[in-house]
Write a structure and sequence with these properties.
- The complex is a heterotrimer of chains A (about 400), B (about 300) and C (about 325).
- Chain A has about 400 residues and is of the alpha/beta class.
- Helices cover about 45% and strands about 20% of the residues of chain A.
- Chain A has helices at about 1-20, 40-60, 85-100, 110-120, 150-165, 180-195, 215-225, 240-250, 265-270, 290-305, 310-325, 335-345, and strands at about 30-35, 65, 70, 75-80, 105, 125-130, 145, 170-175, 200-210, 230, 255, 280, 350-355, 355-360, 370-375, 380-390.
- In chain A, the strands form 4 sheets. In chain A, strands 9-8-10-11-12-15-16 form a 7-stranded mixed sheet, with helices on both faces. Chain A has a 5-stranded parallel sheet with strand order 4-1-5-6-7, with helices on both faces.
- In chain B, the strands form 2 sheets. A two-stranded antiparallel sheet of chain B has the order 1-4.
- The radius of gyration of chain B is 20 Å and the shape is globular.
- The N and C termini of chain B lie far apart (about 55 Å).
- The chains are: A alpha/beta (about 400), B mainly alpha (about 300), C mainly alpha (about 325).
- The interface of B and C includes residues 112, 284 and 306 of B.
Amino acid sequence: MLNHSKIVTLILCCSLLFIGSGWAKVSSIKIGFNIPLTGDIPKVGECAKYAAKMLQEKINQQGGLQVGNQRIPLEFVFEDNESKAASATAVALKLITQDRVLAIIGPQSSKQAIPAGEICDSYETPMISPWSTNPQTTQDRPFVFRGCFLDPFQGPVAANFVTKEFKAKRAAVLYDIASDYPKGLAEFFKSAFEKIHGKGSVVSFETFTTKDRDFSAQLTNIIRSNADVLFTPQYYDEVPLIVKQAHDLGWKKPIMGSDSWGSAELMKLCGNDCKGLFFSTHYAAAGAKGKTLEFIQQYQSKYGYVPDDVAALTWDSTRLLLTAITNTNGLTGKQRKDRKAIKDQLAQIKNFEGITGKMTFTPEGDPIKCAVVVKINDQGAFEFYQSVCP
Amino acid sequence: MDTQLFFQNFLNALQWGSFYALIALGYTLVYGVLLLINFAHGDIFMVGAYLGFFFAVVLSGNSLIQLPMWIIFSLTVMLSMIATSFVGVTIERIAYRPLRRKGANRLYVVITALMCGIILENGNLALFGASRRSFPELIEKSIYTFGSISISNIKIMVIATAIIAFIILEIIIRKTRIGMAMRAISYDRVAVPLMGIPVDRIIVFTFVLGSSMAALAGVLFVTAYPVLEPYMGAIIGWKAFIAAVVGGIGEIRGAFVGGFLLGFIEIFVAAFFPSTLRDLIAFSILLVLLSVKPTGLFGISRSTKI
Amino acid sequence: MINLFHAYRYWIIYSIFSFIIVLSAHQEWVNAYIQLVMMFIGINIILSSSLNIINGYMGEFSCGHAGFMAVGAYVTSILNVWLFASDRVFGPAVFSEIWALILFPVTLIIGGLAAAVVGILVAIPSFKTRGDYLAIITLAVNYIIKSAIENIQSIGGARGFMGMRKVVNAMSDVWDIPWMLIFILIFTGLTVWIIWRFVSSTYGKGIIAIREDEISAEIMSVNTRQMKITAFMLSSGLAGIAGGLFAHILGYINPGSFTIMKSTEVMVMVYLGGMGSLSGSVISAVLFTILLELLRPLQVIKWIVIPLMLILLMMFRPEGIMGNREIRDFLPLKRK
């Protein structure tokens, strides 16, 4: 029957494709990028991709990366993990076993970084997640590192800041219960705040679900609770709505955010309502100096907008990886040995000069870094306000 | 119960429910005539919002014509409704009509509708990139406060528009000939062409009406919540569909009431219970309603002859 | 002897086929990524054929399949991590590693039973309503399950649940062969066999009768209530088993993996293969999974190309790949 044989041939051809593509030769430094190009937060994937591409061009223009006494060109493989945990796992496996990359950068969100990290660790491939702040990503995984500080550090930073700056004694929190980053950070903030001010000082702990647009019921409750400050660790597409609706309902007190606020898009979407608010993050674009300023200018001239923290962290994480590769002083060409060598070098990095701060890795694979509290000034730029170091 | 709190939430719920109501109206219209659940409807809502965004930016941002804001707003709404109707009718022509001609099983058309929706979402993402867009502020926001209840003029406008749109739709359906034809088709598909009524034209008209409702909802939505993203229509579409069914699908009164009902349940559950349980309780209430009244609140149980 | 061989020919062919696959995985002739894709294919076969019972053979419109998958995934994972792995939440393993191997199918079936019980939740409203109203109920059940899991903090809620990889490692410690692949092959074969037997039995004829004309079926003494409950329980139970297997391959589950989008993907596979055709759902599950992975380099365009292909398929061959014929109709193996 015609249909039947067509189907069989199709299946055979597909399987040949698979096997064939796995036999490609390796003649460059191949690094995989496991990023969300479609799905809920495509901007994060786009920023990471652009920053990485910029770095790749810069290094390849010099003839490649210096390893030992030769320069080897860089080859970056970008794969889309669709912001889904299952896809992130599939992409990690594909990059490791099929594309045979030396190391992986990403995924960015903790939701994907945690399962992908497990894969990378069991297959002994070094992985750096530039943006994931959940402790579980690197816990008990010698091959997984991250490029940013953790939520257990960020929560107390925010809590201490609102206490000192706004003399807040009662706090309200509004967060997305269906997403693990806001949920984790909200809980860390709550425990830090209650440690300072006593149990029950977080008078309102309201939630919503991902993709919600109307927060009037929750905000009404928050206003009635007479809190001194509102902490909302949400992404750049929800914050403008939350802030605007809060102002519409009459909230005039301070609002504090977290590093997920730090996107280039925030002010475009939020406008005047966000001026004068604060958030903790990895770096501040306005008022940057030196290498940071150079990076911002280069990115802006190439892609047309000021890079956000994802771009900066991806830049730093990729440079960390490349430094580790250079420090191996020569790759053998045997995958297992090279990956292990890179991971050993990564673990030994001390005082790396990143544009998001100086970094030294703990035995867990987390960098000891300072956080920056940023104020959104009256021109709508992210202005450096305070630095908090561990 | 605190009356002020109750009133504040009541007003919020009216506004939030208006969106569900407008979108549910579109679902019901198409279902009544075609017995088709147009799952692409939520994404037509998204298309309406984006088209409105483009018209608004073009009209308000250029330096050639300077118009007062409220004219720009009305123009945006009308142009968006017309343009979205085009999109809706195109989808009907390309995707649904060939299947209807073939006499394909209804469920296949539903899957096609689902796929069209996905294409719209991802097409938007591919064409216009990953950035969220911000809707320009066309209407001066003024907030009126009574005691501790505050309501903005946008909220009032949304509620008023929804009610007016519903009344207009009721008039069209009950008092005009074409409305009568629409009701006739939903009653008996086979006999209607025998009476000399051009079924295809009525269907196109239905899609025009439905898509315009969705576009209206879209523009109002981004006026109230000015962040646009390609996936904004998906979840709202599914929830509005559930609202339409609970109200009784095929009856526009049912869709209208169902939309508001869902809005009320969501807001009040979030206000008085821990907001984490909102989705859980809201859908459980809807399930209970459906099991008590299996054809929906306003639905007519259709009897089939054996 | 030859008669025995002939009678069980399908089982023998399948066993040889499975043995070759497991051998190629163990000897690493195919890399781990392809093994993962093969495992996903197995899971999708279970999902699409179980949904085919309801949507295809019985003619209902169930859009909540991912919910049952979630129930099975969580129940199996929690049981396994509690009993066989040391974990932050549950403490050290209760049993030793060899038990992990032996009891894994048992916990999987327990997960499936839990999902089957939840399936009754959907079956009971189906007595009174049909068609689009049932679609709503299944949608609502999907949402409710996802929301309920998000609210249970002790198993992680939205942050997800981890630890299944330790269970798989425990199994490999006993004997280092690709156990997950083996289990998936076993359960896929079992699923297809069970559904085949179900459909050929009086139950199968009964649910096809319900699809064609429910009232006439009632009159002809078909016990529609019992049929519906059985069909729903079987369908959701198998989905639960698929969920448990899915959880152990990924090593991490969170409620976000079991939303309406996942249900939609399964529905697409069923309609692609042809409603009421078991071999159709198997073939379409294979093709669809491979297609999804093949088109991954397309990134953003992928989810435009796939729906477009489906729409074209619907237009030119709306009954799906196999219509409602089976692959047996094409193979002239039996001559009576």
